[in-house]
Amino acid sequence: MRKSTLIIALLLSFFTTSSQVYDAYNHAELKKDSKGRFIGDISVLGIMNRATLDAADDKNFLKEFTLKLKIWDYLGEPMEMYAFQWKRKKSYTVKVNNRIRNLSLDDLKDYPDLQKRFLNIRPSKVDVKISGVAGDGNSTNTYKVGQVNVPEEIVPVVMLFDYIVKDVDLLIAKEGEYREPTVAGSPSTWNEFFKWSYSDPSIGPDIDLNITETSFNKLSENAQKQRIKKIKDVWKQIKHIKLRADLKTLEWPELEMIDIIKTYDRYKKQKKLKKTESDDDFWSGEEEVVAEKAENDDFWSGGTKKKTKDDFWSGKGSTEEEVNVQKSIATATGNQYIGQKEVLTKRITISYYDHGEIDGDRINIKHNGKTKANNVTLRSYDENLSLDLEEGVNRISFEALNQGSAGQNTASFTVYDANNNVLYTNEWKINTGFKGTLLLIKL
Q1: How far apart are CA 324 and CA 318, in angstroms?
Q2: C-beta of residue 411 within 8 angstroms of C-beta of residue 363
Q3: Cα(322)–Cα(116) distance, rounded to whole angstroms?
Q4: What is each CA distance from 298 to 3, 306, 366, in whole angstroms?
């Protein structure tokens, strides 16, 4: 009885081990077609892959992904094409002002502009490692892919491989979509393509067919040809592969994700203030309530207001004068006073985009009356303008040249300092011939 139990246990152990080896490459199974191509999808889905996905994603935003691939050889050279398709979770996690914050699409239901920005988030960099087993298609071994012959071995062997699909070869589309490249890529040599290896039949260490690019370049021309021939001979025998995909690199547009949360916080604060102060106009764009001067702070009470020697029209006048003048101009002309912000940085970057309907809105951006961006068409994605601030008051004006085909629309902008920290973010209504003005006071 004990002997029978031992045999059963050994059999269970064998099948369990075999199953684990088999399952290691269970993301895709591809067979070479009549034209010598491997075409298919490597899908990384479900709870079984949750741990590996979360380990690569510090924003906890990626739910699953699929790598679409097509690999073949043309006139004796390796060719490759890839596309990356992904799905998001309901929320992402990011650190804002040293606090861990979580934001979901449902949180933004009252703010369509932020919902659109949330939906536009996509990975900024992705590298995918693919690995697997390959053979001649005669599925008699554990992996069910067959084996291949190599000159150094008496018996056929199962080939293992891995390869990094780099970010430069992937076009990242919006969630749920994918963009296929129009031109196929090709590694410089077969040595830089799939990295092939096999287990030594004599139970020695794995034997690699590829070497590093640096080592390859040091070989003589004849030695390079011999190594390439050995790899190509293996490739010609491959008819069946099983493989998996793992994220080697995953990066998100962190500044945008942080800024969405900060803007959301500001919107909520403004909404709360509107309930208690009827004169707190949302579209004024002021980031914080500016305390009014005491009524006795005027000439007749004997009080004085500080002035500067700088001429207001140079853009370096009194902050209070500038604010009052800009508000007065906005009221009288229909322009918008967007707000003000004191800053320490010398250099800023303005990121702007159309967060209404994309319909061809065009703008000018001016700094103290000088045009810095002329006749710019607003897109659905961020475009950037960098400029140096002057000491004192800097007037940043956004002038609408048209309203596009959809009529009056809204655009968004964010100001970053030299270290990519968000200084200010807001939006303005696009109305032909009118402008919105932001004051940045360089301290």
Answers
A1: 10
A2: yes
A3: 34
A4: 104, 11, 34
Query: What is the arithmetic mean of pLDDT over 263-276?
Result: 80
Percent of the chain with pLDDT over 70: 80
Q: In this predicted structure, what is the pLDDT of residue 311?
A: 43
Dist CA 44 CA 38 (whole Å): 18
| Amino acid making up residue 11 | L
Strands (E), 210-326: 240-251
CA distance 216 to 413: 50
Q: Which two tokens stand for residue 148?
A: 């291949």
Which domains are assigned to the chain? 28-254 (no CATH), 334-442 (2.60.40)
Packing angle of the helix pair 254-276, 112-119 (nearest 10 deg): 170
How many Å from the N-terminal Cα to the C-terminal Cα in the chain?
A: 88
Quick check: helix, strand or coil at residue 361? coil
Q: Do β-strands 336-343 and 435-442 pair in parallel, antiparallel, or remain unpaired? A: parallel
Rounded CA-CA distance 369/390 in Å is 13
Non-local CB neighbours of 413 within 8 Å, separated by 6+ positions: 350, 351, 352, 398, 425, 426, 427, 428
Under 8 Å between Cβ of 394 and 440: yes
